[in-house]
Design brief:
heterodimer; A: alpha/beta; 8 helices; B: alpha+beta; five-stranded antiparallel β-sheet; 9 helices
C-alpha cells in the first residue's frame, strides 16, 4: 500500500508542484489550503507524513502542530516555512515537528526528507553494528570499511560521511542534510565545500571497482545505491 | 592672617601711646616725659603696655622694663620681640617700637600680645580640629550620598545590563518617590519601550520580507525544476541550471542580509548555548579542509583547549566559515584558525599568509557591501565581513582586522 501524505499549504502554485511531484513518486496526497482544514484532516491520524506550511490563513501552522500533538497524534510532521532563521527552526523543532525545511526548497530535498520520516515511522531502527550497500560494508565497532573484500582506508571525517550515506542508502541526501547530519551545522558554507568532500569519498569508494555506488542527483544532492 | 591682625592691633595701640608721649615731651620737655612714663607704669597702666625711657647709654630712667633690650636697635626699630617685663615671671611676646629722642634719650613703646597669641594658638588648634572634623563629615556625607545614588541607580543599571544582554522585556521597577531618580527610571523605561517596539517591528519586517521574497523564489524554483524534468536539449538544461544557481545566490544574499539585520538588532541571544570553541574550530577546519587542499592550501588549528563559552553556534560557525572562505578566495598560503584567551576575553581568529589589507582599507572592508575594489571581480556580495562584525556585536564583542605579517588576520573578540 502506498503511503499517504497530507499537504497543508495555502500557496496554490507550491501546493500543485509538491503534490504533483509526490503523486509521481507513488504517494497518495491529500491537500488542505488552510490550518483549520489541515487540522481536521490530520486528526483522523491515517497519514504517514504531514507536510505543513508555517504561515497559514486562519490557523497558524505552529498552532495546528500544537493541537495535533496535544491530541496524541504522533504522525511525522515536516514544516515548510519561509522563516529560516536559526531561532525559527529551533522553535519549529521544539514545537513538535520532526523536520524543518526552509523555502524555497528543492523538491528532491523535500522528497528525501519525507522518505526519511516515513521510514523512521515504520521500522524501529535496530541497533546496527554493520551497515552495507551492495558489496560495500562498514563495521561500526571495528571502524573498518571493505568493498568486495578489500579494505578501504578512510579518514575519520570520510568515515562519518560514508556512515551517514549508508544509513540513508537508496535515498537522496542533500548537501544541507550532509552538513547537518555529519557536522550538526546549518549554515551556508559558501563554496562547493560538500561536493569536494563527496568527490574525495567517491575516489576511495568507487575508483577501481566495476560499478559506482555514489551517485550525484541532479539539482538535489547525492545518493548511495546499487542502481545507477 | 589672624596672627598678622593681632600684631597690627598691638602696633596700633603702641603707636597711640608713642604719639601721646611724644606730644607730652614736645609740650612740656624731657622731665615731664619721664614723669608721665613713670606715672603710666605705676598708676594708669593699661594692661599690656610696655614702656621704657632710657638714657643715651641705655640705662633705664622710667618704665616697666629693667633694661634696654639688646636685640632692639636704638632707633626706628619696630617689630615683635619676646621680653621680661618687671614683676613678670615669664617672658611675653610683644610688639615694640624704639624712638630716638633729641638729646640722646630713647623711648620704647609697645604692647604685649602674649594673651592674644595664646588665644590665636588655641584658635588655630580649634580650627585645625574643626577642619579635620569638617573633612571627615564631608567625606562621610559624600560617601552616603554616593551610596544612595548608587543604590537608587542600581536597578536602572541592572535593567539596562539585562536589556543589553538581550532581554528586551526588562523594565526598571516603578518608583513612587517622584524625584529625579524616578524621572530617570521613567525615561529609561519609555526609551526601552521604544527600542522594544522598534526591534519587534524590525523582526516583523524582516520576517515579512523573508516570506514575501521567498514565496516567489519558491515558485521560481518549482517552475525551473519542472522545466528541468521536461527539457532534454543540452543548451536549455544548462540555462535552467544557471537560472537555478542564480536563484540560489540571490536567496543566499537575502538570507545573509536578514541574518546581519537580525544580529545587529540583538535578535538571537536566546539561542546561545555553551560550546567548546576549540572543537568548533576543528570542525570548521575539517569542513573546509578538502577545499583548501584542492586549492593547494592548508588549514591549521592553534587552539587552547577546554574553552567553553555561551555563543550562537550557528552564527559563529557561519562567521568563521565566511572568514575561511574569504581567506581561500583572497588570501594565500596556510590558513590558521586560532583561539587565545586573555582575562575576561576569548579571541578566535582566522589568519592567512597573503597580501593582507592595508590599514586605511580595513574600515571599509568591515562595512556592509563595502567590498574592496580589488575584490570586486570575484563573486560574493561583500556581506561576509559585515556578517562577521554583526555576529561579534551580537556576542558583545568586536572584530579587528590586523596584520599577520604577512597576511590578514581577522580576530573576533568575545567577552567572557
Amino acid at each position: 500500500m502506498s503511503a499517504k501524505i497530507l499537504l497543508v499549504e495555502d500557496d496554490d502554485t507550491t501546493a500543485d508542484f509538491v503534490s504533483k511531484g509526490l503523486t509521481e513518486e507513488g504517494y497518495v496526497v491529500d491537500r488542505a489550503a488552510n490550518g483549520r482544514d489541515g487540522l481536521f484532516h490530520a486528526t483522523d491520524g491515517s497519514y504517514d507524513c504531514i507536510v505543513l506550511d508555517r504561515m497559514l490563513p486562519g490557523m497558524d501552522g505552529m498552532a495546528v502542530l500544537a493541537a495535533l500533538r496535544a491530541s496524541q497524534i504522533e504522525t511525522p510532521v515536516i514544516i515548510l516555512s519561509a522563516l529560516g532563521s536559526p531561532e525559527d527552526r529551533v522553535k519549529g523543532l521544539t514545537g513538535g515537528s520532526d523536520d524543518y525545511l526552509v523555502k524555497p526548497f528543492a523538491f528532491a530535498e523535500l522528497l528525501a526528507r519525507i522518505k526519511l520520516l516515513i521510514r523512521r515511522g515504520t521500522s524501529a531502527p535496530a541497533v546496527q553494528t554493520v551497515l552495507s550497500c551492495g558489496d560495500l560494508s562498514m563495521d561500526l565497532l571495528a571502524r573498518r570499511v571493505t568493498r568486495a573484500g578489500k579494505t578501504i582506508e578512510l579518514q575519520p571525517r570520510e568515515f562519518r560521511l560514508l556512515e551517514y550515506m549508508l544509513r540513508h542508502a537508496e535515498q537522496v541526501v542533500t548537501r544541507t542534510m550532509l552538513l547537518e547530519g555529519v557536522w550538526d551545522y546549518h549554515f551556508d558554507p559558501g563554496t562547493n565545500v560538500i561536493d569536494v568532500h563527496l568527490s574525495r569519498l567517491r575516489k576511495k569508494v568507487d575508483e577501481g571497482f566495476a560499478s559506482p555506488l555514489l551517485h550525484t542527483v541532479r539539482g538535489a544532492g547525492y545518493r548511495l545505491g546499487v542502481e545507477p | 592672617m589672624v596672627r598678622g591682625q593681632v600684631f597690627a592691633g598691638a602696633a596700633a595701640s603702641a603707636e597711640v601711646l608713642r604719639q601721646d608721649l611724644l606730644t607730652v615731651r614736645q609740650d612740656s620737655g624731657d622731665a615731664a616725659l619721664a614723669d608721665t612714663v613713670a606715672q603710666r607704669v605705676t598708676r594708669n597702666l593699661t594692661p599690656g603696655t610696655v614702656l621704657l625711657l632710657a638714657d643715651a647709654a641705655g640705662r633705664p630712667i622710667a618704665g616697666n622694663l629693667s633694661a634696654w633690650p639688646p636685640n632692639v636697635a636704638t632707633d626706628a626699630h619696630a617689630g615683635a620681640v619676646e621680653l621680661y617685663r618687671i614683676g613678670r615671671p615669664l617672658p611675653e611676646a610683644m610688639w615694640v617700637r624704639a624712638t630716638a629722642l633729641p638729646g640722646g634719650r630713647r623711648l620704647l613703646t609697645g604692647s604685649v600680645v602674649e594673651g592674644e597669641r595664646r588665644a590665636v594658638r588655641v584658635l588655630e588648634a580649634a580650627m585645625l580640629f574643626a577642619l579635620s572634623l569638617a573633612v571627615a563629615f564631608a567625606a562621610l556625607a559624600s560617601w552616603l550620598a554616593a551610596r544612595m545614588i548608587v543604590l537608587r541607580l542600581e536597578t536602572t543599571v541592572a535593567t539596562l545590563g539585562a536589556v543589553r544582554d538581550g532581554d528586551l522585556s526588562r523594565r526598571v521597577p516603578a518608583d513612587a518617590t517622584g524625584d529625579a531618580f524616578a524621572d530617570l527610571a521613567g525615561s529609561v523605561n519609555a526609551m526601552l519601550d521604544r527600542v522594544e517596539a522598534l526591534v519587534v517591528e524590525l523582526k516583523i519586517a524582516t520576517d515579512g520580507l523573508a516570506h514575501d521574497l521567498k514565496s516567489p523564489l519558491t515558485r521560481l524554483r518549482s517552475a525551473l525544476e519542472r522545466a528541468a524534468v521536461v527539457v532534454t536539449e543540452p543548451a536549455a538544461l544548462e540555462a535552467v541550471d544557471r537560472a537555478l544557481a542564480e536563484g540560489e545566490r540571490l536567496l543566499a544574499l537575502v538570507e545573509t542580509a536578514l541574518r546581519i539585520t537580525r544580529a545587529e538588532a540583538g535578535i538571537g541571544t536566546e539561542s546561545f548555548t555553551a560550546v567548546d570553541l576549540g572543537g568548533e574550530l576543528e570542525d570548521i577546519a575539517e569542513i573546509y579542509g578538502p577545499v583548501a587542499e584542492d586549492a593547494g592550501r592548508d588549514i591549521r588549528v592553534a587552539a587552547a583547549s577546554g574553552v567553553v563559552l555561551a555563543v550562537h553556534r550557528e552564527l559563529l560557525g557561519q562567521a568563521l566559515g565566511n572568514l575561511v572562505d574569504n581567506a581561500l578566495k583572497y588570501g594565500a598560503g596556510t590558513i590558521t584558525l586560532a583561539l587565545t584567551t586573555a582575562p575576561g576575553m576569548v579571541t578566535v581568529s582566522v589568519a592567512d599568509r597573503g597580501d593582507g589589507i592595508a590599514p586605511h582599507d580595513r574600515e571599509a572592508a568591515l562595512r556592509r557591501f563595502g567590498r574592496l575594489d580589488s575584490a570586486r571581480s570575484g563573486t560574493g556580495a561583500g556581506l561576509g565581513l559585515s556578517l562577521v562584525a554583526a555576529v561579534a556585536r551580537l556576542h558583545g564583542g568586536a572584530v579587528r582586522l590586523g596584520d599577520a605579517a604577512p597576511g590578514l588576520v581577522v580576530a573576533i573578540d568575545l567577552p567572557v
